[in-house]
Amino acid sequence: QVQLVESGGGLVQPGGSLRLSCAASGFPFSIYPMSWYRLAPGKERELVATITGSGGSTNYAASVKGRFTISRDNAKKTVYLQTNSLKPEDTAIYYCYLQRQSRDYWGQGTQVTVSS
Fold first, then answer.
1. Three-state secondary structure along the chain?
2. Alpha-carbon torsion 41, 47, 48, 50, what sign?
3. Model pLDDT, residue 40
4. With CB atoms 3.0 to 4.6 Å apart as the test, which of 2, 38, 68, 72 could cross-link to 92 if both were Cys?
């Protein structure tokens, strides 16, 4: 079955960086776009970034463009989110997301906290 397992979150000071990872299994990874979402307390879920199956095309939310980079390693079946120049408003739980055969799949999430 489909499994998405995120890692790499933590506590970081403003201006710092984290690299989030999402290890995938149970489906043909390289043909599916993958996305990162985040959910912050009191806010709606936000689509952060999306990458095509080949990795050749990416899209970002305006709030993170120029600071975050989504990438993938299809041999390792892993998608990454490099987060740089982090701000307190980036504090959230970050989720890996897949849509396959009209079903939505989510990982368990990884907490990112940006605070001094």
1. CCEEEEECCEEECCCCCEEEEEEEECCCHHHCCEEEEEECCCCCCEEEEEECCCCCCEEECCCCCCCEEEEEECCCCEEEEEECCCCHHHCEEEEEEEEECCEEEECCCEEEEECC
2. positive
3. 96
4. 38
> What integer pLDDT is reported at residue 108 of this predicted model?
97
* 8 A C-beta contact, residue 53 and residue 32: yes
Residues 77 and 24 sit within 8 Å (Cβ to Cβ): yes
pLDDT per position as a tens digit, 19-42: 999 999 999 999 999 999 999 999
Distance CA 87, CA 84 (A): 9
